[in-house]
């Protein structure tokens, strides 16, 4: 469904069937010289059909159109190869997330190791391909962008902002004169972005907090999110997100008073706003995301000195200090 959300800026709402996210907001900025698509949807027939339907409704000439991908997740990057084949000229990505997308063998090794860290038995990471869109199979040729790079599109001059946290290389676009921000999954209305574990060397939750506080300082009238509603009061929403994570951290500390836990055990003990009656009813993908988020919070508590991480025979446990 196409909606003009600002002069010459359109939201293409693409349904994500059988997915708790429901839909992704792909944005299109039109100008006489160049157009820009922001994010794509999964690499599925359903998403591609809806994406192309919206572009055709706007009579978008893909030969004078570029693509900006906010981050590596397949609901944002999945249709990049298809758009390239249809004429899109340049695909913009952060170097970090672009490399993560393309380094499939390293990513698979990481996911297998993470499976063990989370406390799951076996390797079920392949289930993501079935539940959340076809995986990237060939390297994607992209042009890297970083903080301060600018793209001029008619009356709009958007500048790249580094906002890591949801992924290590998440980027957004800020239009300073019109006070617009395209934020991908960095800030969402109604739901909270998943902040998962990306390695022991970085406190990714602290990184996310820093990015939230960074965007808090921007003058923004329209925060164009990748899911759910457009946010009109970004400072209010950022405050809500920070409070949400503060409650999460306190919940984890309370749970740990009963004894040490693996990240998977912690996730099973936490409260989640999902329709499933019990942890056993969660699909594996949702258990994975929940456990990854529990782990990022546990690691944050370890980094600030409130809990200990213990490794025993390849299993990781966390306990109060």
TrEMBL record:
Keyword Hydrolase present in the record's keywords: the answer is yes
The UniProt record lists the Metallo-beta-lactamase domain at: 23-227
Source domain of life: Bacteria
List the InterPro entries.
Metallo-B-lactamas, RibonucZ/Hydroxyglut_hydro, Sec-metab_biosynth-thioest, WH-like_DNA-bd_sf
Q: Which UniProt keywords apply?
A: Hydrolase
Q: Give this protein's Gene Ontology molecular function annotations.
A: hydrolase activity
Coiled-coil region(s): none
PANTHER family of this UniProt entry? ENDORIBONUCLEASE LACTB2, METALLO-BETA-LACTAMASE SUPERFAMILY POTEIN
State the name under which the record lists this protein. Answer: Zinc metallohydrolase, glyoxalase II family
Q: Origin organism of this chain?
A: Desulfosporosinus metallidurans
């Amino acid at each position: 469904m196409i909606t003009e959300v600002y002069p010459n800026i359109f939201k293409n709402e693409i349904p994500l069937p059988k997915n708790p996210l429901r839909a992704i907001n792909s944005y299109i900025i039109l100008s006489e010289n160049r157009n820009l698509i922001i994010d794509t949807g999964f690499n599925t027939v359903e998403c591609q059909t809806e994406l192309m339907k919206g572009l055709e409704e706007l009579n978008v000439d893909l030969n004078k159109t570029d693509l900006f991908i906010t981050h590596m997740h397949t609901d944002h990057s999945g249709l990049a190869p298809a758009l390239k084949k249809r004429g899109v000229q340049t695909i913009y990505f952060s170097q970090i997330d672009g490399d993560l997308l393309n380094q499939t063998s390293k990513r698979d090794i990481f996911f297998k190791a993470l499976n063990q860290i989370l406390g799951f038995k076996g390797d079920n990471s392949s289930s993501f391909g079935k539940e959340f869109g076809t995986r990237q199979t060939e390297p994607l040729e992209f042009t890297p962008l970083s903080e301060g790079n600018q793209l001029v599109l008619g009356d709009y001059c958007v500048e790249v902002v580094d906002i890591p946290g949801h992924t290590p290389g998440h980027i957004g676009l800020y239009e300073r004169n019109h006070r617009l921000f395209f934020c991908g999954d960095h800030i969402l209305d109604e739901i909270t972005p998943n902040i998962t574990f990306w390695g022991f060397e970085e406190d990714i939750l602290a990184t996310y907090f820093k990015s939230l506080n960074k965007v808090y300082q921007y003058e923004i009238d329209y925060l164009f999110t990748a899911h759910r509603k457009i946010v009109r009061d970004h400072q209010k929403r950022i405050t809500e997100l920070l409070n949400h994570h503060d409650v999460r951290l306190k919940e984890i500390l309370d749970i740990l008073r009963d004894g040490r836990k693996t990240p998977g055990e912690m996730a099973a003990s936490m409260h989640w706003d999902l329709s499933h009656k019990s942890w056993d009813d969660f699909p594996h993908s949702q258990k994975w995301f929940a456990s990854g988020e529990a782990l990022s919070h546990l690691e944050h508590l370890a980094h600030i000195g409130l809990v200990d991480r213990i490794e025993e025979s390849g299993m990781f446990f966390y306990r109060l200090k």
